[in-house]
């Protein structure tokens, strides 16, 4: 599949938000995805049927998938994605699989898809027989639209989504087709296939990537904003790829269609920065607020008790994602169970998910809490500094020693 055709397919047919150009900053996750697609194994040489890409809205999950498919097509020209975006239903599933069969000129696949059987059974029959050795890649994009959030752990897939997973996971684990899922919320896998997919936790851009992003800007944009101002702007916007893209468009004196649409729905005048080289704090706050509306952040906060909100304010002390041990010292005096509540807060969008030393790590994005504003701040700065001192002692990189100092700022 040619590059232009691939991206047209992902955007127009699949409904995915992908960047054809300008992808940057996710080299390690990209390598892991390519390994899965090419070898059917994760980094530990464990056989897998695909990958689940988990992360907050706007961090580039769909872009990462698009880039991986583009690179994989260079290695396997016959590979063709079947994209199922958003809520799964029988009509959508059959239509997308049938379109793929027609594009391949595969009449036998069309016949299988027209059988008088339940839709999951037809998909199972196709993937485990006629397409068992075909380089088919199934993408479930924005899968969180099929999930019911819970207050005691992982989300629960809808009945239709669960039925499809019961088919797709073993088919892609045992045969050549592969499954890629993007989601903002972690969810419980079918008990028979708990490790059929490798999990990639995608966080915001790392600080080291920000200057590289500035260097990739067109020269006319670089002349408007210095590297220091760009990095400050990026930090305020949570280093979130989508919001940064909106900000650069606004700095060019234009209003992104998506931002204009959000403003209209909120009954507000569309944002216009008039090409300002240094947007004000008010402008940045308004842009962040519009983005948070897409996350239903007000509704998310309304679901939390006072202890959970206090924990979020304390956790903002960390500028970088940390594993559970880094958050343990912040729950003193609170009715918080990290084993249970981290997942809940993550699925509500209040904690950003990432990785540290191969383990799940979380932070509170500046988009959610612009500043650290907890009571007894010195105590929580001390907790953060102690964690980074221990982390630096285990792996004495310069960056981690810097984080010890920054924990007191």
Written account of the structure:
The protein is α/β, with parallel strands linked by helices and 409 residues long. It has 3 domains: 3-201, Barstar-like (Barnase, Chain D, 2-Layer Sandwich); 207-294, no CATH class; 313-406, no CATH class. It is 50% helix and 10% strand. It contains 19 helices and 9 strands. Strands 2-3-6-1-7 form a 5-stranded parallel β-sheet, sandwiched between helices. Strands 4-5 form a two-stranded antiparallel sheet. It has a two-stranded antiparallel sheet with strand order 8-9. A hairpin with a 2-residue loop joins β8 (352-356) and β9 (359-363). The model has no long low-confidence stretch (mean pLDDT 88).
Q: Please identify the structural class as seen in this structure.
A: alpha/beta
End-to-end separation in angstroms reads 51 Å
Point out poorly predicted stretches: none
CATH structural fold name of the largest domain: Barnase, Chain D
Described by strand count, sense and barrel closure, the largest sheet is:
5 strands, parallel
Q: What is the CATH superfamily of the largest domain?
A: Barstar-like
Q: How many helices?
A: 19
Number of domains: 3
Number of strands: 9
